[in-house]
Specification:
2 copies of one chain form a homodimer.
Chain A (H helix, E strand, L loop, with lengths): L4 E5 L3 H12 L3 E5 L3 H9 L3 E2 L3 H5 L4 E4 L4 H9 L13 E4 L5 H12 L4 E4 L2 E2 L1 H7 L2 E5 L3 H14 E6 L6 H29 L4 H9 L6 H12 L8 H17 L5 H15 L10 H9 L7
Parallel strand pairs in A: 1-2, 1-4, 2-3, 4-5, 5-6, 8-9
Antiparallel strand pairs in A: 7-8
Helix pairs in contact in A: 1-6, 8-10, 8-11, 8-12, 8-13, 9-10, 11-12
Chain lengths: 299, 299
């Protein structure tokens, strides 16, 4: 039996890691990225590369879209070189971008009308998870979409949550997750800066809080970068201005108030305004430090 | 060698559990509470009770103060029947209330001037931890204070963080913890209500988020009460209007902005305004549900 053919669109830090994880799992992987350099990175890791979207998907069983947002996903599917009509009949499109649930539902309906399948499958786990094939997928879609997507999900994911057959539910769950992570990282910044203001030893604060009721996954994961003063981007501030923006746009469209998420978004926007858009999202603490004249650890 | 004599002031749900844990550890425990009913509860569990503060502390090696705030602690120490001068010379006073660090430092200095010791030892772990002798203490004080307090800390605590010899550091750490827990519980409420608004299955949201980057100790601990619709108070809304109030008073006194904590405080105040002050702090979700007309699970 021939290996399942997977086309990966978008070879950034997430997409490249996912493509390589699929290769390691024995799938036949071809990748595409607008950047020749990113294509070369996949080739160096043993993957095939395609020179265009059409060439990428023409023989694919599974297309994995690892682009930034709904607009890019829409362009990939329905733009000038969109794959919606060049994908083989019956193939599945796995969309990994964080987006408003309604956008996911609309694109799924439009793609499915043409005989292809759509899996709404945003993910979490960062580049570490992508490289290890250990992502979490929050996925929804038809049973056919799930069945066809299975080899890629297994290769790239460790936990695959099946959230029903309506595209949009995966995106909804991802937004709830991003609301919480976004608030928690901002709260970690506020708390660590206040700890510094009160004269506490920051290493001690990390040790105590990590083992107390104040702990969160985000606190435990991000505070080490504050302690080492290393704000090189594992996940950039701009990801959360984007994702909390989607959370709040969605909430507003639903007539739902989300003041804590709104407040956290302002913290990331302050970090962007201070020139830290491309730095690690733990940089929120540096906004407080700047305002209050605090000395944080330097790398 | 005679058992260490411990006097416990305040036999509420926390103090009673701590007194009983000390009894189980073999200490000689006497308790005091203004309420005869609470005194009777300790007597029923095998402890001695005192009819006044003076009688409680006159032979105590260790006095554990489990009252609500700085004002009550001050009254216990320096009020009309205050124990500052009736405690034996050289005994230690363990203060467990959450309070502004400066208040702790002031009371410590005043008590120590009279030859007694003060340990600034706020705790976390709730009634479950109190009953099991498994609290976390965030403690600071002189080496003498720590040495004398040791038998009680060991009997009542599982984790004892020693945060240096300056009273106030324990209180500072507790405030950082409460800032985070307070924001996290409010964020859990906002997120669960938004999940309901988006039509997600709330049990599924709990399962996914508990295992994803959006997890926090508070989310995992409090959301089950939302799923079961049981808002009977394990930790009441009013605890967080109090504790975030102290966090924000302290921040303001330091000239430090804490907008996320401020926003979370408003969420608890909204819950109080809606008549939920004595309900479980997870009731924040019910404020959103009330505003947005959502149906949450009922017990």
């Amino acid at each position: 039996m021939a290996a399942t053919r997977v086309g990966v669109i978008g070879l950034g830090s997430m997409g490249l890691g996912m493509a390589v994880s699929a290769l390691k799992a024995g799938l036949a992987v071809t990748g595409f990225d607008l950047s020749a350099e990113r294509r070369k990175a996949l080739a160096g890791a043993g993957g095939q590369v395609a020179e265009s979207l059409s060439l990428l998907v023409e023989e694919a069983d599974i297309v994995v879209s690892v682009v930034v947002n709904a607009a890019q996903t829409e362009a990939v599917l329905f733009g000038d070189q969109g794959v919606a009509e060049t994908m083989p009949d019956g193939a599945v499109f796995i969309s990994c971008a964080t987006m408003a649930p309604k956008r996911a539902a609309e694109m799924a309906a439009r793609l499915e009308a043409g005989g292809r399948h759509y899996l709404d499958a945003p993910m979490s786990g960062g580049t570490t998870g992508a490289n290890a094939g250990a992502l979490t997928f929050m996925a929804s879609g038809s049973p056919d979409a799930f069945e066809r997507a299975e080899p890629a999900l297994q290769a790239m994911g460790e936990k695959i949550y099946r959230l029903g057959d309506a595209a949009g539910r995966g995106s909804s769950m991802k937004l709830i997750n991003q609301l919480l992570v976004g608030v928690h990282i901002a709260a970690a910044g506020e708390a660590m800066a206040m700890a510094a203001k009160l004269g506490l030893d920051l290493e001690e604060v990390y040790e105590v809080i990590s083992n107390s009721a104040g702990a969160s996954w985000a606190f435990c994961d991000r505070v080490p970068s504050i302690l080492s003063g290393d704000y090189s981007p594992k996940s950039a501030v701009s990801i959360f201005t984007k994702d909390l923006g989607i959370v709040l746009d969605t909430a507003r469209a639903e007539g739902f108030p989300a003041p804590l998420a709104g407040n956290a978004l302002q913290a990331y926007l302050m970090a962007e305004a201070a020139g830290m858009a491309g730095d690690n999202d733990s940089s929120v603490v540096r906004v407080y430090a700047k305002l209050a004249g605090l000395d944080l650890p330097q790398s």
